Amino acid sequence: MPPPTSAPGVRQAEFRFHCIACGDLSDTASQDFRCAHCGDLLEITYPEWKKFRPNAEKLKSDWCQRRLSQSAIDLSGVWRFRELLPALDNDRDAITLREGNTPLYELPQCARITGVPRLLAKHQGMNPSGSFKDTGMTVAATFAGRAGFRWVACASTGNTSASMAAYAARGGMRSLVLVPEGKISWSKLSQALDYGAVTCQLRTDFDGCLRLLQELVLRAPVYQLNSINPFRLEGQKTLAIELLEQLDWQAPDHIIVPGGNLGNSSAIGKALLEMRDLGLISRLPKLSVIQAEGANALVRTLREAGGKRLVNVQAETRATAIRIGNPASWKKAAHVLEATGGACEQVSEIEIAQAKAEIGAEGIGCEPASAVTLAGLKKLVKQDFVKPEESVVLVLTGNLLKDPDYTIDFHRGELFASTGDERASATLNPLRRPPIVLDATLDAVIGTLQQAENS
Ligand code: F0G
Fold first, then answer.
1. What is the rounded distance in angstroms from the CA atom of residue 190 to the CA atom of residue 396?
2. According to the model, what pLDDT value does residue 14 have?
3. Whose CA is nearest to atom 15 of ligand 1?
């Protein structure tokens, strides 16, 4: 039997469920992960940390040490940080695909464009299923398996379903996917199919799929794996922990993240606050959330309702991953924005397309929803919220290959063709690299090469 891999002297965390509204604490959660008293969302807390505060320096050195280990749990960029996650009875219970361990890239060209020289991208699209969802799914799927569920389910704009189907398959569970018909990319749908999910394309939007799922889990023995499930957010916290480790525990001035259902921003914010409280970092980065103009529920909630009640919207955007009008975790996100002093902005479809091409030109690429971060940064610089001397990390949430139709439409000039928007053409044309169809002759290829060189 392999030796236990928990850091000696640092206990893995015992946890409880804490209601974010009425503060109720409990050891169990119902299947809809809502508070039994007031119906609001739950989060996971670690009351033990008050009595046995983990030693920050020991944690850092143990996490670093584990990089040399070959055990599955240590090779996971999520479970490597398991002292800040709900405890497993046995390390071998973890359902893992070696998630996390994602690169932190410099973006020199985007740095020049934005006028922010210290600009980095944490690329969560380099996870096993191609999006940040894997970091949360490994934890939540593991707890589903531990609770003995045969079925797991989610509503999704595509990435959650791809990730859930993969982890369910690895853990020997069946999975049920509810997606809005015609509103998610084929690439994401194909992943769910290949990983064996029962995939239902519902004639509604994401918000309609999520509403239905919430009712379903109260009627059928299925475990819901949307980000309402607080285990998901615990796993997604590790994005921030791994990022700070990569930065040698020196907090950047800003972290900028896309906002859809608002689970990821909530998770990153929770991690930042916990790391500050545990003494892992000495100051908080400002966490900012960027939304598409057509799916701007949090922007409007903060501007029009002072963050006190949700202003929901009828969502519309080509960045289909964040086409969400009624975000479940809006209260959690509003809280972490306030606690870290971050901003919330919206960006147009043209700004998203331009930013996506600019990130692509760095040789890494991302899906449209991720590109809102760069588009948002440009706005935050203009507003003087981000200063040129400050350091900024953009969270790229999904891989370029997640939505090839968008990229191809962009380069062929078809993305905004039906809108007849002249401004779009002027801004975007210089970034387009459409495929060129030629006769198969040397002259034709050399001519094209010369034309490109001179342009
Ligand atoms: N970026 C990508 C690529 C996403 O897939 C999502 C959400 C987000 C950003 C927004 O993150 O919801 O935590 O605020 N996708 C979900 C899904 C909703 O079903 O795949 P969020």
1. 22
2. 87
3. 321
The answer on pLDDT for 44 being more than 60 is yes
Q: How many Cβ atoms sit within 10 Å of the Cβ of residue 393?
A: 25
Q: How far is the CA of 213 from the centre of ligand 1 (A)?
A: 17
Q: Given the DSSP bridges, would you call strands 119-123 and 104-106 parallel, antiparallel or unpaired?
A: antiparallel
Q: pTM of the entire structure?
A: 0.96
State residue 166 phi and psi, 5-degree precision.
-65, -50
Q: pLDDT for 386-424, tens place per residue?
A: 999 999 999 999 999 999 999 999 999 999 988 877 778
pLDDT at 349: 96
Mean pLDDT of 356-382: 98
Name the residue among 33, 7, 25 with its Cα closest to residue 217.
33
Query: Does residue 18 register a pLDDT over 70?
Result: yes
Query: pLDDT by residue (tens digit) across 288-345?
Result: 999 999 999 999 999 999 999 999 999 999 999 999 999 999 999 999 999 999 999 9
Give me ligand 1 centre to Cα 104, in Å.
20
pLDDT confidence of residue 52: 86
Ligand 1 atom closest to the CA of 267, numbered from 1: 13
Q: Whose CA is nearest to atom 5 of ligand 1?
A: 321
Supply 409's token pair. 């439409």
- Name the residue at shortest CA distance from atom 19 of ligand 1: 156
Supply the mean pLDDT for the chain: 95
DSSP 8-state symbol, 344:
E
Give the position, in ligand 1's atom list, of the atom nearest the Cα of 157.
19
Tokens representing residue 43 in the block: 């989060």
3-state secondary structure 171-240: CCCEEEEEEECCCCCHHHHHHHHHCCCEEEEECCCHHHHHHHHHHHHHHCCEEECCCCCHHHHHHHCHHH
Using a 6 Å CB cutoff, which residues line ligand 1?
A: 131, 156-160, 227, 258-265, 321-322, 367, 369-370, 397-398
**Predicted pLDDT at 12:** 61
183, 225, 264, best to mutate for ligand 1 pocket (most atoms within 8 Å of CB): 264
Residue located nearest, by CA, to atom 3 of ligand 1: 398
